[in-house]
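Need C-alpha cells for this chain, all 161 residues.
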Amino acid sequence: MDKFTNNTFMMSALADGNEMAFDALFVEYYPKVLQFVMRFCSDKSEAENIVQDLFMELWIKRERFLKIENLDKYLFISARNAAIHCVKQSLVYCDAELACDIQGNDISGDMKMCYEELYDFIFHEIDAMPEQRRRVFIMSRVEGLSNAEIAERLCISKRTV
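Here are the C-alpha cells for all 161 residues:
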C-alpha cells in the first residue's frame, strides 16, 4: 500500500476513534515532531509538553482527520503554531519577571540570557515581515500607538491596521 493510501486509511480510522491507529500515528510522528519543536524552544521538557498537548488535542478533535489532505503538513504546521504560541507566552512571562528584576536591579544571568534570546527571535521574525506589516507592528507594539493613530499616520483605514 502506498503512503497516500496508508495515510488516508489511518486518518479515517483515527476519525472513527481507533486507538491502535492513534498509537501508530503517535509512535511514528512523536520523535519527528519533538525534534522539530525543539528548534523553537531549547528546553526539552517544554518541547515534550507542547508535543504531548498537540497529540492530545488531535485525539480530542479526531473527527477533523477526515478533512486533512496532508497529514505531515498538518502535524508540523500545528506543532509550529503551538511552539510559537509557547514562545510568545514565555516572552510575556519573561518580560514580567524582567520588569520586576529591573526594578529591584537583580537581573540573573539566566534571565538576561532568556530575555536576549527571545528578543533576538522576535526581532528576527519582525524583520521577516513585509514592510507595511512590520511598520504597523512596530508602531503598535514598540511605540505603543493605537490603531487609530497608526491609521492616521500611514493614511490607511483603522480596520486595515
